[in-house]
Each structure stands twice: as structure tokens, then as C-alpha cells.
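Lab notes, practical 5.
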Amino acid sequence: MAWKWYDSKIIRIEDESSTTKRFWAKVENDEPLNFKAGQFVTMDLPIHEKRTKRWRSYSIANHPDGSNILEFCVVKLDGGLGTKYLFEEVKIGTNIRFKGPSGTFTLPENIEKDLVFICTGTGVAPFRSMLLDLIEQKKTHRNIHLIFGTRFDEGILYKEELKALEKKMPNFKYSIALSREKNLPSLNGTEIRKGYVHQYYLDEYRDVTPDVDFYICGWSNMIDEAVENLILKLGYDKKQIHYELYG
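Output from the prediction step:
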């Protein structure tokens, strides 16, 4: 399938952490950009002579609201040409060309199971899109548990927003795993544990049931470990596991 290419301009940039930025891109025409929560776009960045070596994919962090504005949450990678360009050269008004939206990392139309979202770092972006979409569309859902892992308190992305969703959204639980933080912060009721994200879900979901689906987003080594843990250590069926790789 040939995806449509769009031209957009960056209209807003914010620091989310010392290594992460949020970018807002507005498509140049006034046509609404249709996408499903959880999808991504592929940007063509001016970082290489070969076209395919210029392409970088980023999950859409906002929900489908009928507008032509997309938000992206991007972490700067050491030696990464794409993020070096985004962090050091992109400014308000910079043109960004992208294709898509694409991807099948989306929720079913009818949610009939409990959902567990497992992510690290900017892997939280598609889950934010999904959660906001469920709220805005008033979609029926069961229990949803977002388990977010990062190294330090400073790296918790969308912290205040997700904390607020716990109070606003029925049957939603937000948990954080900090692997290297010495002193755990207090987030007024949000559950925070010291350790890796993997130990969190291994403890919480050791009682295997067919009535839950796991959605995982992060780097490939994190995905591999999570899938292996859920299937081999805990005994879940592979049909209960859905994931989005980040490289």
C-alpha cells in the first residue's frame, strides 16, 4: 500500500525531560488528518543522501481529535542522526515531511478484556493516545493498567497528566517502576516501585487468565524480554500479547 505523504510545519516544541522533547506538527492544508490511536508516522528527515536512510518513525502521542495537528514525544539518542536533527536543528516553522499514519498497534473496537499497557520511556506515547481517545469518545472499557518504566524520577513522561487520569478515568490504574532512583518520589496515590518494569508485571499478573490482553511498547530488547516473560515464565497465550517495536 502506498501511503500518502504530508507536508507539515512545527508549531510548538517543549522539553518534557532533559533528554526528551515534545513536538507539535501542523499539516499545511486544513484537511483533518485521520488516524487511529496507537498509530505512527514515518518522517523523511534531511539527514542522509539515500531516502530510506532518512526515514524515522514516531508514534503519535495525541488522540484523534479531527484536527490536522500531531504531537510526538522523542528521546534524544546518542549518535542518532534523526534525533540529533530534531533536537539541534528543528525550530518553530521547520518543515517536516511524513507519510502515514500507519501501524496496527491499536485497540479493538469492542474492548472485552482487561488491558495491561507495559512501556518504557517514549513508548508511553501510543498509550497516551489510546487513553485520551477512550475518554474523548466515551468508549466502554474494562480495567486498564499502565505500567511505565524508566531509570529516574526526572524521566517520568506525562507524569501529571497520567496521574490526573487515575482520578478522571474509570477503572484506570497508573504505576511506575524506577530502576535507578535512590529516593522514590511521592505522587499522591500513584503507585511507584523501585526496580525494573519487568518485575512489576511479573508480580502483578502471575495468576494467568485468558481475560486480559497485554500491549507492550519500547525498544526491541525490552519487547523481547517482556514477551518471553509473559509466555514462558507466566504462561500466557501469545495471542494475548501485542507490541510495537522501537528498533
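Observations recorded by the TA: The two ends are 22 Å apart (CA to CA). The first helix runs from residue 81 to 88.
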